[in-house]
């Protein structure tokens, strides 16, 4: 795909449904009793992998675009899959599903694509084994393929070494099926969609600042879910609106859960012209409309507990920082190394090719702005949706055209991303 520099970006778009919430709506609907109706579901490749895996375990799921109906029969009715469960590119699918499978007495095998094969799984298989699940996999359960036979779980108290919603959710979903009360503590609070949605399905949890406890043996009752727009997808157009000259973009119905809004805090600290109009909290998740316009930005430091509130937005924040006066330092973000790609390496290498003054550090990066991005280069997403989209926005401000390889990766979380770029640049 070749993108040419655009003069302005103007208009209003509806950001597709939140990926994290869409995954959970299918998983929890599948293990609940009754019919769960989901609206504004994200029909991205990752969430479709989740649907496919639960269909293989005998769950009747109807999906038409953004409407999904799940006919759940409860946890006990999940069936041993006759085939391998393939999660594609989705870390959320494999890690959360393992938490569910940890309580199921049947056998299953999980695989994913080349990227999943490199991502660490012991962070989840470790605590699940402590609960009593039998799990094996390449490198002693660190990598896929993984095989699991669950059942007979006993509650644990677990101190997670990293703030991760995937670890927390897997442990809670196994804890739901264990004898006793399972408690997980994390260094900083990670996104809390699992806790919010389990409550909507009638499960009671006990939460304080960094811990959450769940009593085993509770059942889920079907409910209706409205999925707000994904703030991680909105982030690309929040940045586009700030850095493309003479722009104003309105983003409708974007999720504003505080565990995810680090990007909004960063934009404000950097001096962006951003208006927030919170609308509602339908389905336990707050959401609202965001209006962003071209801004004069300054560099800042991003570190500590802010990182888990914007971990997936760091690639696009790095681009934002190239257009800010001064230095932006991103630290405490070593988790970036174990995402779909090593996002410290891929962000730094691809932005350098476009002319950015950026350097990698052990746990993040330093970006010196403000730089004119020259472009005129061939760059790649390396199969990572967030890198592909960051490069798509970068190409809107480069002096010369950019050729982006492997743009298909955007299907994972934002299938109509390039259509939205085209729409906004046409409405001038
Ligand atoms: O699902 P996957 O592949 O892990 O997706 C990513 C992403 O960029 O979309 C991470 F690469 O998002 C994760 C996120 O980083 C989704 C997620 C969730 O839904 O629970 C939690 C975060 O991961 P983690 O490891 O911090 O729990």
UniProtKB/TrEMBL annotation:
Predominant location: cytoplasm
Record bears the keyword DNA damage: no
Entry's localization field: Cytoplasm
Keyword vocabulary terms for this entry: Amino-acid biosynthesis, Aromatic amino acid biosynthesis, Cytoplasm, Transferase
InterPro entries: Enolpyruvate_Tfrase_dom (IPR001986), Enolpyruvate_Tfrase_sf (IPR036968), EPSP_synthase (IPR006264), EPSP_synthase_CS (IPR023193), RNA3'P_cycl/enolpyr_Trfase_a/b (IPR013792)
Assembly and interaction partners: Monomer.
Record: residues binding 3-phosphoshikimate: 19-20, 24, 164, 166, 312, 339
Origin: domain of life: Bacteria
GO MF annotation terms: 3-phosphoshikimate 1-carboxyvinyltransferase activity
EC identifiers of the protein: 2.5.1.19
Official protein name in the record: 3-phosphoshikimate 1-carboxyvinyltransferase
Pathway given in the UniProt record: Metabolic intermediate biosynthesis; chorismate biosynthesis; chorismate from D-erythrose 4-phosphate and phosphoenolpyruvate: step 6/7
Cell inner membrane as UniProt keyword: no
Domain Enolpyruvate transferase: 5-420
Catalytic center residues: 312 (proton acceptor)
Catalytic activity reported: 3-phosphoshikimate + phosphoenolpyruvate = 5-O-(1-carboxyvinyl)-3-phosphoshikimate + phosphate
Top EC group: transferase
GO cellular component, one term: cytoplasm
Sequence positions that bind phosphoenolpyruvate: 19, 91, 119, 166, 343, 386
């Amino acid at each position: 795909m070749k993108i040419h520099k655009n003069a302005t970006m103007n208009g209003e778009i509806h950001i597709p449904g939140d990926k994290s919430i869409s995954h959970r709506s299918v998983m929890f609907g599948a293990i609940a009793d009754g019919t769960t109706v989901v609206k504004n579901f994200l029909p991205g490749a990752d969430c479709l992998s989740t649907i496919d895996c639960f269909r293989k375990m005998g769950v009747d799921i109807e999906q038409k675009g953004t409407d999904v109906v799940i006919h759940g029969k409860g946890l006990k009715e999940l069936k041993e899959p006759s085939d391998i469960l393939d999660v594609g590119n989705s870390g959320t699918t494999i890690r959360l599903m393992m938490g569910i499978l940890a309580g199921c007495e049947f056998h299953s095998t999980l695989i994913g694509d080349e990227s999943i094969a490199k991502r660490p799984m012991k962070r989840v298989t470790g605590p699940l084994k402590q609960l009593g699940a039998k799990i094996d996999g390449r490198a002693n359960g660190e990598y896929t393929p993984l095989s699991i036979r669950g059942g007979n779980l006993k509650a644990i108290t677990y101190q997670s070494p990293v703030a991760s919603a995937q670890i927390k959710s897997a442990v809670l979903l196994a804890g739901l099926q264990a004898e006793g009360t399972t408690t997980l503590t994390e260094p900083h609070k990670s996104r809390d969609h699992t806790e919010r949605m389990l409550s909507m399905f009638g499960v009671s949890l006990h939460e304080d600042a960094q811990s959450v406890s769940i009593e085993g043996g509770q059942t889920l009752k079907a409910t209706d879910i409205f999925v707000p727009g994904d703030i991680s997808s909105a982030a690309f157009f929040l940045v586009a609106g700030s850095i493309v000259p003479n722009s104003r973009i309105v983003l409708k119905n974007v999720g504003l859960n505080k565990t995810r809004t680090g990007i909004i805090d960063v934009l404000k600290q950097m001096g962006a012209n951003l208006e927030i109009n919170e609308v509602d909290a339908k389905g336990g998740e707050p959401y609202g409309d965001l209006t962003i316009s071209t801004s004069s930005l300054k560099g800042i430091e991003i570190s500590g507990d802010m990182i888990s509130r914007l971990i997936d937005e760091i690639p696009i924040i790095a681009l934002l920082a190239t257009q800010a006066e001064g230095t932006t330092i991103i630290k405490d973000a070593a988790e970036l190394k174990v995402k779909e790609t090593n996002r410290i390496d891929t962000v730094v290498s691809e932005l350098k090719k476009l002319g950015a003054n950026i350097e990698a550090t052990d746990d993040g990066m330093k970006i010196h702005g403000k730089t004119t991005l020259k472009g005129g280069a061939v760059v790649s997403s390396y199969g990572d949706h967030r890198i592909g989209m960051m490069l798509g926005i970068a190409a809107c401000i480069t002096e010369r055209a950019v050729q982006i390889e492997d743009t298909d990766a955007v299907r994972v979380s934002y299938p109509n991303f390039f259509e939205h770029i085209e729409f906004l640049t046409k409405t001038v």
